[in-house]
Design goal:
By secondary structure, the protein is α+β, with helices and mostly antiparallel strands. Helix content is 52%, strand content 17%. A five-stranded antiparallel beta sheet has the order 6-14-9-10-11. Strands 7, 8, 12 and 13 form a four-stranded antiparallel beta sheet that branches. Strands 1-2 form a two-stranded antiparallel ribbon.
Amino acid sequence: MRITTGMVYERGVAALLRQQQALLEVQQQLSTGRRVVTPSDDPIAAARAVELGQAQALNDQYAVNRGYARDALSLAESTLARVGELIIEARTALVQAGNGALSDADRRTIAVELEGRLQALLAYANATNGAGEYLFSGYRGTVQPFVASAAGIVYQGDQGRREVQVETSRLMPVTDSGEAIFQRIPNGNGVFVSAADSGNTGSGVVDPGRLVDPSAFTGHRYAIVFTVSGTTTTYSVLDQTTGTTLSAGNSYTSGAAIEFDGLQLTITGAPADGDRFTVTPSGTQSLFTTLQEAISILQTSTATAAGAARVANGLNAGLANLDLALDHVLAARASFGVRLAELDALQAGGEGLAVQYQTSLSRLIDVDYAQAISDFLRGQQSLEAARASFSRIAGLSLFDYL
C-alpha cells in the first residue's frame, strides 16, 4: 500500500482530533459533575433522568403546597383556640350572673361584658389569612362570612371547603364553612331541649335534663302542664306529637326527677297553675344567638318570682348551649389539628422521597470523579503520545537520509 504525505497528515490529524474529543468529553464531565452531559452520552439514563426530574419537581411543588396548607390550618386552629377561650369566659360570666346576691344592675353590667365578647366573636369568625381571604367563608374567600343585620348575625359564605393538593392522591381542606363551625351547633343537651313557657307566672326552673334510656326515646314534642289546687301541685305529661296524654295527676315535688319516654329532667321551685314546660328534640343554634339570648336574659328584671325564674331558666339554657358550643368548637379545632399532624407525616414522606429521587438521579447522571480523573489523565497521555508520534512520522523524509 502506498502511503502518501497527504494520507499521513490526514490520518494523523484525525487521530489527534479523536483524542482531543475524548479528552474534552471527560473534561466536561469533570467541570459539570455529570456523567450524562448530553442525551447521546447515555440515552436510556437521560430518559430516566428526565422522568425522575419531573417527579422531583412535582414533589417540590407539593412541599410548597404543604407549606401553604400548614399556614392556613395553623391560623384557623389558633383562631378557634381564641374562640374556645371566649366561650369559657362567657360561661364564667353566666355562672357569676347566677349568683343570687347580684342585683339587676350587676347583671346588666355582665350583659355589657358579654356584648364585648359577642363583638370579639364576630371578629374571630371574620378573620382573614393576611392576604384578604376569609378563613371561614367556604369557597367564597373574598366574601365576609358573618354580617350583623336587623335579623341578627347572618352567614354570607357557602358550605364549601377550599382544598390544596398536598400529595399525589391527597386534596386537603384548609378551610371549613363558618356556618358549620359557628351556627350548626346542637342546642339543649344535644338530644332534647327543655324550656319554660314564656307565659309562666310561677317560680319553676327546669334543668337541661338527660337521656336515660336511648331505646325508649321517641324524639316527640312534649309539654308538662302544672295544676295547682290549694296546697297541692300536680302535673300532666302530654305528647304533643301524637296528641295523647302520657300521664296525669302526677304529684309534684320540687327537685324530684320527672321521667318519661327515656328522658329525665328536674323542675325546682313553685310552678303556678297553668305553667307549662316543653321538651322538644334538639336542633341547631348559632353561637351568636346563644350569646344574644344570654345578653337579653341578663337584662330581665328579677323583681318578681316569675322574673327571677325566667332569668334562672335563661341562664340554665345559656350554660347548656355554651357547653355544647365549646365541645363543637373544640371538635372543629381538633379537626384542624389532625390535618396539621397529617401534613407533618406527608412532609416527612416527601422529604424522604426527595432524597430517594436525588440518589437515583445521582446514580444515573452524576460523574464518578475517581474514574473521570483517571480517564482524563489517560486521555492526556494518549493525546501527548499521539502528538509525539505524529510529529515523528510527519518529520520522516528520504531526503534526511541522502
